[in-house]
Every structure is written in C-alpha cells, then in structure tokens.
Request: fold
Amino acid sequence: MWTLLVIFLILGVGAFIIVGIYNGLVKLREQVDAAWSDIDVQLKRRHDLIPNLVQTVKGYASHEKETLERVIQARNQAISASGPEDRGEAEQALNGALRGIFALSESYPDLKANQNFLDLQNNLSDTENQIERARRYYNAVVRDYNTKIRTIPSNIVANAFRFETREFFEIEESERAVPKVDFGS
Reply:
C-alpha cells in the first residue's frame, strides 16, 4: 500500500514538473511570437513611409527614376519576405536603397529644405529607432527560448512536444547603424 502511494506521489511530482516546464516553454514561445509581431508592425510603418518619401523626392528629382525604382523594388521585396533571416536580408537591401535617396537629396537643396521631406526624415529616423528596440527585444526573447529548449531537463520536454528553435533577426555589421537622415549643416 505504501509502495503504491509513493509511486503515485513520484508520478504526480514528475507530471507537475513536466507541466511546469511545458508551460514555461509555451510562455516563451508566445513571447517570441509577440516580439516578432512588434518588429513586423514597425517594419510595416517603415514600408508605409517609403511611398510618401519617394513621391516627395520625385517632385524634385524626377529624372532620378532609377534610384526611386530601386527603393520601390526593395520595399516590395521587404514586404514579401518571410521569416527573420529573409526579412533581415530584405531590410538590409532596403536600407541601401534608402541611402541612395538620402544621398540624392544632397544634390537638390530645395528638396533638403522641403518640410514634407524633413517630416518624413524624422518619422523614418524614429521608426528606425523603434525597429532597433524591437529587434533587440526579439533577439533577447529568442535567446531565452532557444536556451530553454537546449538545456536539461527542459530539452527533454521540448523534444517530446516538438518545440523548435527560432532564428535571430540579424543584419550585417555594416547595416547596424541607423541610416543618417540629418541634412542640416
């Protein structure tokens, strides 16, 4: 009788531990998904600013069609990219295309002084900062989640319930700085 009671007690404690580990993994997975959603929101905001920026530049530099088309093409690729790795590469290409627009504005003093252009620069700079904050948070949560999946004893539960590691949202070292959008001086 006591042996049976001890066996049930051990099984109950084991089940309680497994449920606790499972719930912890689910919580971290949900945090990763929420953090990715935050990045997605900021990237959408950035993508929504770009057509306005292109239209403003087009009014001053209409013969710079190739630069403007590159920006629109990079934006479209960024919108259609999926997953952190693809999204990171597409956003890197978009950063390069945006630098082309900002470099172009140096040749057009009227564009540099245009209030709409200045407002778009400020909005884009703010959005870039928010993307960076969201990226840091996402990567921190992914790190915690992946660590939990790979460490004992939670890796046993993670494997049993098919929890999979997540990718970090990374960009190239050369792209880590927020694009310079200050045209004063």
Residues 66 and 126 are 27 Å apart (CA to CA). The two ends are 87 Å apart (CA to CA).
